[in-house]
């Protein structure tokens, strides 16, 4: 933002630098070639912007290609700017000691992670638990109805009394923290830049592609109880390779695919932080590159 003007009619005008386009336009209109090097540079800049917000305890909650402006100026690759803070919130309590949890779904459906799709008509729920589960534990689990059938929601819950590992247990909906939500959205943005299409329509098990990429079936050796579990990053990367190859597209380098898989992991506790992303091997060429910032 370069300036603010308030007129006699109380209309406030914000003046920002000129940006010629946004990344969604660049992708949908095919205006520039999205080589892996270019995708890496844009993802690096996006993570730098997101990291700046997180450093100041702000979560964006609506990261998407529509909200990433690009200005080329005299450069070939251009520089991006993250905008639209209409759904931004604080990530922590004022004393910074406790991460705040939210219950309202925000952002665009393909960019929003599964933990944000919280059913509004219930508070106490039933979930299948894993071996070692204990009361008070916060876990990412699928919700089930009275007949043990999955409701289609995979959310973070806090287990309450009478937890029986390997069986159905009662739990309380626990909302979501914001920083993993932003990482997931950055991962979806990376996917779209790389393959010129979103990975899914919505990040829920009702979406066939999301279910294929991010879910697996696993059986507990002690109880024989089978339930949907998130696979490891390697499994996710392999499924992305198969998916994009079926689209007739080339996958990225192994380093890029590994980072992408970790960023869109369905379990927020298993996604990397911004700083962990920025030191990923894929970004090895980038630390010597200056991060574009506004002049003071």
Walkthrough of the structure:
It is built from 7 helices and 13 strands. With 296 residues, the protein is of the alpha+beta class. The chain has 2 domains: 223 residues, Transferase(Phosphotransferase) domain 1 (Transferase(Phosphotransferase), domain 1, Orthogonal Bundle); 56 residues, no CATH class. The strands form 5 sheets. A 4-stranded antiparallel β-sheet has the order 8-11-10-9, with no helix packed on it. Strands 3-5-6 form a 3-stranded antiparallel β-sheet. The longest helix is centred in the N-terminal third of the chain and has 20 residues. The radius of gyration is 21 Å and the shape is globular. About 4% of the residues have low confidence.
In angstroms, what is the radius of gyration? 21 Å
CATH superfamily (homologous) name of the largest domain = Transferase(Phosphotransferase) domain 1
Name the overall outline.
globular
Tally the beta strands: 13
The major beta sheet can be summarized as:
4 strands, antiparallel
Short description:
This protein is an alpha+beta fold and 296 residues long.
